[in-house]
Amino acid sequence: MSSFQDKSFSNMEDLYPVPFPDDVPIAKLETISLNKLLSNNEVEAQRLFNVCKGSGFFYLDMMDHEIGRKMWEDACYACRSGQAVLPITPMTTKKAYKARTGVKVLDRGYQTGAVNDDGQPRDSEMFMVPQTEFFSNEPLGFELPPWLAPHEERFKNAMSSGNIVANVILSILEGKLELPPGALTNIHKLTDSSGDFIRVLRYPGTDLGAEIDPLRFPPHRDAVSIAILFTWLGGLQITDEEAAFAVPESSWRWVKPVPGTAVVNLGDAMEVFTNKLLKSGLHRVIKAPGLQRAHDKYSVLIVARPEDSTPMRSFSSPVIPEGTEEQKSAPIYSSIEWGHNKIKALQDFIDKLQSARAGKTENLERSWTAPKSGSGIDVLEGCPVGLVTHYRTKAEH
Ligand SMILES: O=C(O)CCC(=O)C(=O)O
Ligand SMILES: [Fe+2]
């Protein structure tokens, strides 16, 4: 086992090497209490529903309930496992941990963008550990590669805590949406085949004096139901709510990491299920602010996605708006097809963005063979390649 396993969880100083600067615009996010959600507090449930109809982003206080404290500890452990393995494992070894054939959803494998001459990623790298393979009732014969296998137990713990927390949120939302009990929770079970995963991301630090392109992870929305993110240094940004239609550079706000909390956001699946009553927030990652930029930034993301065969269409209920005739006649994808199309479109967009930044065609080596078909879904429709700007059409809102 790695030496970091003994590091204390009461002493987190190593995860916060430099304070977050106080002179950058910060997103004002509500803090929701996990303990209050778990004890059926009606005021907190209503606050959650309001936030989900607004920005779709909130801090979840993990420290006021045992389940949250355990999940926070597992997330810190996952972060330290990333710190222990990502900078020192050779790129060829990391790249040998492949995604499934075809794009499907990004629930396993290693990904990076451009790689520098020294073998380190230029912007970011990440690995995913799949939930289904570890929790399915049928044995699926999956093994993590040797550089990740020693951390398997903690990744599993974090995923099972993540599934509990996601279902607490989903059960409150299903009540507020006036859906039958189980409408959302029954399609987000830990044992389902659904493409859920835990992801550990690393954004390498940069020389403070260096001229660098700040973009680390382009603007996107998550192709999931619920995303639970733990991060210790700055870099994540969301947009000002008033900038819902056009997103100028000035509308981006920093999400300040708060110890003991997760940053939770709804993903696109919740917009589909509710005809956009609930919101999936646009976000991006740029270089960490101020002196934090010299340090590697790590994030740990745990997601819940709908079970693979779920039809991706809106539920009907007295509180969910009716779809337009056009929406009603659009093809209905299953969750796995829908996720596949979204990821394919996002990856194509990232490839184009990388090419624009490099000033040449740069076909990133992917750990899968992507099918040729057009996806029919453009995740970042209208987003001009090379600009960190996203336009949402009014009709989409
Ligand atoms: O690392 C972060 O702060 C965000 C990562 C993210 O948005 C993602 O993996 O989808
Ligand atoms: Fe994301």
Automatic annotation (TrEMBL):
Protein name per its UniProtKB record: Clavaminate synthase-like protein
Family designation: Belongs to the iron/ascorbate-dependent oxidoreductase family.
Keyword annotations: Iron, Metal-binding, Oxidoreductase
GO molecular function: metal ion binding; oxidoreductase activity
Domain of life where this protein originates: Eukaryota
PROSITE patterns given in the database record: FE2OG_OXY
Matching PANTHER family: OXOGLUTARATE/IRON-DEPENDENT DIOXYGENASE (PTHR47991)
Organism: Glarea lozoyensis (strain ATCC 20868 / MF5171)
InterPro entries with a match to the protein in the record: IPNS-like_FE2OG_OXY, IPNS-like_sf, Oxoglu/Fe-dep_dioxygenase_dom, Plant_2OG-oxidoreductases
A matching Pfam family: 2OG-FeII_Oxy
Domain Fe2OG dioxygenase: 194-308
N-terminal signal peptide: none
